[in-house]
Structures are given as C-alpha cells and as structure tokens.
Design brief:
- InterPro entries: C2_dom, C2_domain_sf.
- By secondary structure, the protein is an alpha+beta fold.
- Among the domains are: about 115-165, no CATH class; about 180-300, Immunoglobulin-like (Sandwich), CATH 2.60.40; about 310-445, Immunoglobulin-like (Sandwich), CATH 2.60.40.
- The protein contains five helices and 17 strands.
- Strands 11, 12, 13, 15 and 16 form a five-stranded antiparallel beta sheet that branches.
- The radius of gyration is 49 Å and the shape is elongated.
- The termini are far apart.
- The model is unreliable at about 100-120 and about 125-170 (pLDDT under 50).
Length: about 450
C-alpha cells in the first residue's frame, strides 16, 4: 500500500516536471521571436534615419552650389556682353565701313556687316566675285556681278569693256516649252542591233501649282513597228528624271534608212492613269550611228506623223443569236507601189483564240495600184467560246511575177480586245461588241513588218 503511494507520487512529480519544462521551452521561443522582430524594426528605422539625413545634406549642398554659381541676367539687352558682371559693358561705337559713302560704297542689306570693296577705291584693283558653278555654260561673268552692283552702275564700268569679248561665247539654249530628251544611238553591224541609250529628260512641265512635280517614264519605239517597244522605270516626283538606260532593237543595216526612233514621255498620276507629255521622232538618217554622239531633241506635244506604209479598210459585225462573227476586207490604199507591173497584193488572215491559232484564210491576189479593192467577207463561228478571246491579225503581202520568189510583207493590222490590240484595232472591236447586228466599218493604219 505504501509502495503504491510512493509510485503515484513519483509519477505526479514526473508529469509536473515535464509540464514545467514544456512551458519553459514555449516562453523561450516566444522571446526569441520578439527579439528578432525588434531587431528588424530597429535596423529599418536606422536605415530610414540615415536616408533622411543624406537627403537633407544633399539639398543643402545643391542650394549652396546654386548660390555659388548663380548669375543675374540683365534686363537691358544692350548690356548683354561676354564680359563678367563685375566689369562695365563696353561702349557701343559706330563700326567703320571699309568703303566710305563718298566713293560709292554699296550698303549691305543686313545691318551691322561690312560692305564689299570694288574698284571705286583709288589705287586698288577691283575684286570680282566668282559666280557659282552651274550646268549652264556660256554665261558672261558680268551678268553675275549685276546682283552685287545693284543700283551703282559706275562699279560695272570695268566689266562693260570686257562685254565685247564675252559675246563670242555661245548663249545657253532656249528653255523648251514641253521638255527635252538626251539620248545616244549606235548600230552594231556585226550583231545587226541598234543600241539606244536614254540619258535624261529635262524641263518637263508640272501638273499644277499645288503639285508641280510628276512621275514620268519613257517608251522607246523603232518605227514604223509600234508593237515592239522598251519602257523605262518610273521616276517619282521630278521634272528632270535621269534614266541612263540602254535598249537594243534587232535591225539590219539595209533597213536603217526607213526606220525612225520615237521617244514618248508619259506621266502616271495618283490614280495610276497615264498622261502623254510629248513625243520625239528622229529619223535614223539624221543620226551618226557610228560615233554614239549625244543627241538632244525637244518634246512635241502632238504626235508627229511617221512615214505611212498604207491603210486598209475593214468591216466587223457580231451576231450573238447565230453565234457568228463576220469580217469584211474592203480595200487598201496608200501602199508602197512595186516597180514590177505584174506584181499583186493579197491579205492573209490569222484567226487566234487566245494564243492558239485556229484558222488561216486569205483574199484573192489583186493588181498593184494606188487603191486595191478586195471586197471579200469571212465568217467565223463563236459557239462555246468567249468573244473577248478572239483576235485577228491581217497581213498585207506583195507577190512577184515569178512564182519562186518569196512573198514580201508590207504591213499588218491587229483586231481584238484590250488583251491583244491597241489603238484603232481595239476601238473597232469594242464598237462591234457594243453595237451587235450592225456592220462597223473603219480605216486602219498598218504597222510595219515584224522584225
């Protein structure tokens, strides 16, 4: 009994000591946490105080520097000089001119600057102002000095004596009204090629005062063939484009006499519409094709007529209900007459659908004369086909008396939509499609034979 009581007492004392020990550990942990938080707060406060002290010292230092280097700006503009404030401003004196008024000095337009000295002062030679370099040659130097002499003609007496010697210099060319084209042409006999270099175009007329510039480009043709041409690149916002582009045409030496070069200058507006500015037509007979010399020609607003090789009268009609199209070859005129009295003319017709050749037909051979009458009609079926893809190429040939001699091509005409024809050939086709069941007749200028 006594032993059980003793064991119970020991167990109670052990539990009490365990509870007291756990309580002490909890208090120690709480004290450590409090000390850590207090330390962090103290460090933060110290850093904040140091930062405030540094800011206050910096402001005082900046204020001290501003006070040290502060300058008081004077309100009187006449006293603003480069000298320090401690010194008095220099007195304002009149500037002495290098050429007094009694000798005819020239007053400068800008006040406070000294005037130039010329030959008015005794004992000194005249000082001539050299004119700026310019691309216009042959301008006498006394014309430039009139800008400096102004209303003092006595200063130009010395230059007036040299005016007679300056008259020998050729004056600059008169400005063109519509523009001017510079180019070179050289014929390569070995390769049978005509090499044309378009150098530049200058002095084009602007569109309007609000938009004086243009976007020009040039097309180069070798007449009488107008189907083959070369086009330059477009130059933006300029009236004096410089191209320096070279093109080549296949042409032999014997046919150079009958050929001409045409330069057509165009402008492209904001709506991508092309406007004609002018043309230059130069016969190859008038050009030295061996030296490649630079040729300059003025633009003409109207188209100069090229040597005509003949005209042909054609009639077209379209019958949509029958799905047929009719072509009538009426006559030809102003053709080149052959010296052979037994020679004849005929027209060969190539019918194309797109780029595919469908048919070839031709008229009967007619005798040579100023006007050749054919009066033949040809009908073509258009079923299951688009009429806009049809196009006709009519070629005028000359035959000789001897059957073994080859046929000579005189010229040709192309009829079709905008994809295949241009000019009168396109207009004739469009009128036929707009006025169906009507016979539309029109004269066509023939193009030269293809190279």
């Amino acid at each position: 009994m006594r032993l059980e009581n003793t064991n119970a007492k020991n167990e109670n004392s052990t539990s009490v000591s365990t509870n007291s020990r756990s309580l002490g550990d909890g208090l120690t942990g709480n004290m450590t946490l409090v000390v850590g938080v207090a330390t962090v707060v103290a460090i933060f406060m110290i850093l904040l105080v140091c930062l405030l002290v540094m800011l206050i010292k910096g402001k005082k230092k900046d204020k001290r520097l501003q006070d040290m280097f502060r300058l008081e700006l004077p309100t009187d503009p006449s006293t603003v000089k480069s000298a320090p404030i401690s010194r008095n401003p220099s007195p304002k004196r009149e500037k002495r001119l290098s050429c007094p008024s009694e000798y005819g000095a020239i007053t400068n337009a800008m006040s406070g600057r000294r005037t130039s000295t010329f030959d008015s002062l005794p004992g000194y030679e005249a000082e001539h102002v050299q004119p700026p370099m310019c691309d216009v040659t042959g301008k006498p130097h006394f014309q430039y000095q009139t800008y400096f002499y102004g209303s003092h003609p006595q200063l130009a007496v010395r230059d007036a004596s040299t005016a007679s010697s300056s008259q020998s210099i050729t004056p600059p060319p008169v400005p063109s009204l519509h523009g001017r084209v510079w180019f070179t042409a050289l014929h390569d006999q070995a390769a049978n090629r005509l090499i044309v270099t378009l150098i530049k175009v200058k002095e084009l007329r602007g569109r309007a005062e609000e938009e004086p510039s243009r976007d020009p480009f040039v097309r180069v043709f070798l007449l009488p063939e107008e189907q083959t041409y070369h086009t330059t690149r477009i130059h933006k916002k300029t009236l004096n484009p410089i191209f320096n582009e070279t093109f080549a045409f296949n042409v032999d030496t014997h046919s150079l006499v009958a050929r001409s070069l045409r330069f057509s200058v165009y402008d492209v507006d904001r709506r991508r519409i092309r406007h004609t500015l002018g043309h230059v037509v130069v016969s190859l007979e008038d050009i030295d094709l061996k030296s490649s010399a630079i040729v300059c020609r003025d633009l003409e607003p109207g188209m100069l007529a090229a040597p005509s090789i003949g005209e042909v009268c054609l009639a077209l009609t379209y019958l949509p209900n029958l799905e047929r199209m009719k072509l009538v070859v009426l006559q030809a005129r102003n053709t080149r007459l052959s010296s052979d009295p037994e020679a004849g003319f005929f027209i060969r017709i190539h019918v194309h659908y797109g780029k595919k050749l469908l048919k070839i037909k031709q008229t009967l051979v007619q005798g040579v004369g100023p006007e050749v009458h054919f009066n033949e009609s040809f009908s073509f079926c258009t079923s299951n086909k688009s009429i806009d893809n049809f196009n006709f190429v009519l070629t005028l040939f000359q035959t000789a008396h001897a059957s073994k001699e080859p046929e000579i091509e005189i010229g040709h005409v192309t009829l079709g939509s905008f994809m295949y024809a241009r000019g009168d050939g396109l207009l004739h086709w469009q009128e036929m499609t707009s006025k169906t069941r009507q016979l539309i007749t029109r004269w066509h200028q023939m193009n030269g034979p293809s190279c």
